[in-house]
C-alpha cells in the first residue's frame, strides 16, 4: 500500500519553508511553533532531533519539546505522527475501506470519504502502517496542585504568571 505525506505551506515567519523535507531518508512535516522560538526553522530542528531513528526519537519530541505543534514522518513504509500535549494545533484522523488519513481540518477528511473522523489525541503518537492505525499516549497534562494566594497578592501573582508565559513564547521575536 502507498504512503504519502504532504503539507500546505502557511508562511508566517521568513524561516518557514516548503515541506516535507528529506533527512536521512525520512520525509518530515512539522506545523507549529516551539517555545522558546528558534532562530532557525522548526522543521530542521525536528529533523536533527529525529536523526536516523524516528521510531525511538518521535516520542522524545513530544516529551521534550515545549510548543504548539503537530508532525508527521514517512519512514520505511509507515507514518509516525504526533501532537503536542495541549493539542493546540488541530489534527484529525479518519479511515475508510481503502486508507487512513490525517488532516488539520475535518472537512478535508470528509472530502476523501473518510468515516469515523475524530480528533487526534493530544500528547500522542500514531503509527500508520499496512496493519492499521494505532495510538500511543506519550505525554499528558496534569492539573497543577492548587496554590492558595491571599487576595491582596493575587493580582500580582496572576500578572507574574501571565508575563512568564508570554515571555517563554515570544523570546527572540521582534
Description:
With 174 residues, this protein is an alpha+beta fold. Helix content is 26%, strand content 30%. It is built from 4 helices and 9 strands; from the N terminus they run E-E-H-H-E-E-E-E-H-E-E-E-H. It has helices at residues 42-50, 54-64, 106-111, 151-170, and strands at residues 21-23, 26-34, 67-75, 78-83, 92-95, 100-103, 115-119, 124-129, 132-137. A 6-stranded antiparallel sheet has the order 1-2-3-4-8-9, covered by helices on one side. A 3-stranded antiparallel sheet has the order 6-5-7. A hairpin with a 4-residue loop joins strand 5 (92-95) and strand 6. The longest helix is centred in the last third of the chain and has 20 residues, at 151-170. The chain is globular. The termini are far apart.
The backbone outline, from C-alpha atoms, is globular
Report the end-to-end length measured between terminal Cα atoms. 46 Å
Radius of gyration: 18 Å
Average predicted local confidence, pLDDT: 83
**Relative strand content:** 25-35%
The level of helicity is: 25-40%
Low-confidence stretches: none
Count of runs of 4 or more consecutive helical residues: 4
Largest sheet: 6 strands, antiparallel
Topology, number of strands: 9
H-E order: EEHHEEEEHEEEH
Structural class label: alpha+beta
Please state how the strands of the largest beta sheet are arranged side by side: 1-2-3-4-8-9
Amino acid at each position: 500500500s502507498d504512503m504519502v505525506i504532504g503539507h500546505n505551506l502557511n508562511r508566517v515567519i521568513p524561516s518557514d519553508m516548503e515541506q516535507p523535507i528529506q533527512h536521512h531518508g525520512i520525509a518530515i512535516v512539522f506545523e507549529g511553533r516551539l517555545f522558546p522560538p528558534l532562530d532557525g526553522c522548526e522543521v530542521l530542528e525536528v529533523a536533527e532531533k529525529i536523526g536516523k531513528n524516528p521510531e525511538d526519537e518521535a516520542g522524545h519530541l513530544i516529551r521534550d519539546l515545549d510548543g504548539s505543534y503537530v508532525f508527521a514522518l514517512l519512514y520505511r513504509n509507515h507514518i509516525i505522527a504526533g501532537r503536542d500535549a495541549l493539542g493546540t494545533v488541530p489534527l484529525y484522523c479518519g479511515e475508510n475501506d481503502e486508507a487512513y488519513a490525517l488532516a488539520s481540518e475535518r472537512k478535508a477528511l470528509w472530502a476523501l470519504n473518510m468515516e469515523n473522523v475524530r480528533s487526534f489525541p493530544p500528547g500522542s503518537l500514531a503509527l500508520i502502517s499496512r496493519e492499521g492505525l494505532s495510538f500511543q499516549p506519550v505525554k499528558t497534562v496534569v492539573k497543577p496542585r492548587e496554590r492558595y494566594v491571599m487576595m491582596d497578592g493575587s493580582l500580582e501573582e496572576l500578572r507574574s504568571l501571565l508575563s512568564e508565559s508570554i515571555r517563554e513564547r515570544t523570546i527572540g521575536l521582534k
